[in-house]
Design brief:
36% of the residues lie in helices and 15% in strands. It is an alpha/beta fold. The protein has one domain: NAD(P)-binding Rossmann-like Domain (Rossmann fold, 3-Layer(aba) Sandwich), CATH 3.40.50. α3 links the parallel β4 (89-92) and β5 (141-146). It is globular and about 50 Å long. The mean pLDDT is 96.
Length: 260
């Protein structure tokens, strides 16, 4: 039946959203964006204090959730279902990592490599498995995992010269694996009207050293790094009925970085 109006296409009114890692740099902006489009948002994280500035809104509710612990994930989901009865949207932007995160490739211990992949990629598995089954039971939903340009393109290590920064090897493996996992979910759950997509940001400004910011910006067609709020539109789109025929996609929000 043809639409008579497109005004409500992006509305999330009546929908329940779960944002895992919602107290982080991107997570907080995503929480605010989903709330602005009228979703009830459950902000799930391990640190409530980092999210305190958002919790005065009665339609943003904090949940303690450690995605590396399957029991913690299950308990958080049960809490949402007891309260709201369903989960329409899940956004996963959690970023757990070990204390030695950021070592150069030749210095990475195998135990650290395994722990980071288990915590991040394994955590995404924990959350996706539990939420996808709930969405299947209720007749649909939207899963959005946060990836990265480094999940699809090799790093340019020259942009890190003159700083103590590097691109951790596990990060590339985790983000590439996360994109593949999301694609898997998109076909596995398609018959149950569960959509699964990835949003992959490029470099997001977070007070990085000036040499890095300058080199990154020069390499990017739009000539600058992204800002945290610039990821929100892609997430809202994929969460909404505007993307009702979109699944299995990786939406790159990178200023054109991957087009070179």
């Amino acid at each position: 039946m043809p639409r008579t109006s497109y005004k409500e296409l992006f509305s999330l009114s009546g929908k329940t959203a779960l944002v895992i890692g919602g107290a982080g740099l991107l997570g907080k902006e995503i929480v605010k964006g989903l709330r602005d489009f009228n979703a009830t948002v459950y902000l799930a994280d391990t640190d409530k204090d980092k999210a305190s500035d958002l919790l005065s809104d009665t339609n943003i509710r904090f949940l303690s959730l450690d995605l590396t612990n399957a029991g913690s994930v299950s308990a958080a989901i049960r809490s949402i279902l007891d309260d709201a009865g369903r989960i329409d949207i899940m956004v996963n932007c959690a970023y757990p990592r070990t204390r030695d995160w950021g070592l150069k490739f030749e210095k990475i211990l195998f135990a650290s490599w395994k722990e980071n992949i288990d915590n991040q990629l394994g955590g995404y598995f924990n959350c996706c498995q539990a939420v996808a089954e709930q969405m299947k039971a209720q007749g649909g939903g939207s899963i959005i995992n946060l990836g990265s340009t480094y999940g699809v393109a090799a790093p340019d290590f020259s942009i890190y010269e003159g700083t103590e920064m590097t691109m951790p090897a596990a990060y590339a493996a985790i983000k590439g694996g996360g994109i593949a996992l999301t694609n898997y979910l998109s076909t596995y759950y398609a018959e149950h009207k569960v959509r699964a997509n990835t949003v992959s940001p490029g470099g997001i400004f977070d007070n990085q050293p000036k040499p890095f910011v300058e080199k990154y910006s020069k390499k990017t067609p739009l000539g600058r790094m992204g800002m945290p709020d610039e990821v929100v539109g892609a997430v809202v789109f994929l969460a909404s009925d505007a993307a009702s025929y979109v699944t299995g996609q990786n939406l790159l929000v990178d200023g054109g970085w991957t087009t070179w």
